[in-house]
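Treating backbone geometry as a discrete language has practical consequences that deserve illustration. Part of our work consisted of pairing the sequence of a single chain with a tokenised description of its backbone. We regard such an encoding as a compact summary of how the chain folds. The amino acid sequence and the backbone structure tokens for this protein are reproduced below.
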Amino acid sequence: IFDVSNPASPIYISEVAGGGNGSQYVYVSGDYAYVTNWGSTGALVIYNVSNPANPVEVGATNTNLADATSVYVQGRYAYVTNYTNNYLVVFDVSNPAQPNYVGEVNVSYPSSQVYVQGRYAYVISNGGLTTFDLGGSYIQQLQVGGTETDTLQVDGNSTLTGDTSIASGLTVGGNAEVSGSLGVNG
């Protein structure tokens, strides 16, 4: 783990040993890092990285994928590609201590990379790009009185009216403008 608050001068913070023949890929979401391993029974290992100086393993899959290559987490699901067995495997990681196997789909070719956007999974393999429809729905316009979501991605503009409370962390990847007062606690 590196502190990259100054990208020109990254600072080493800590590390943790990978499993099998080595770690292949990492995806970080919230307080957790999801790591795939090559040649390991624990194809996906989940670490709590809320304290970057002390990453702690909290869970691992017991599914043998032989050679897990990449992982992408969206909401409560982790999508893992496998090079040897040619599968895209889905795990429910809503409880990081106990990731549960949900299902798999054959990609037909050794897979090296997965990216999930909305209801589609895009897998890069020796056969090229394969797209999988994960289900769900697309709604052009929606007004909801209340909603709870694990992951929220806004592709366009967003306007929040009323009070907004952020319980964990907030990262702003561009400019931020505040009109009025701003209170920061902590």
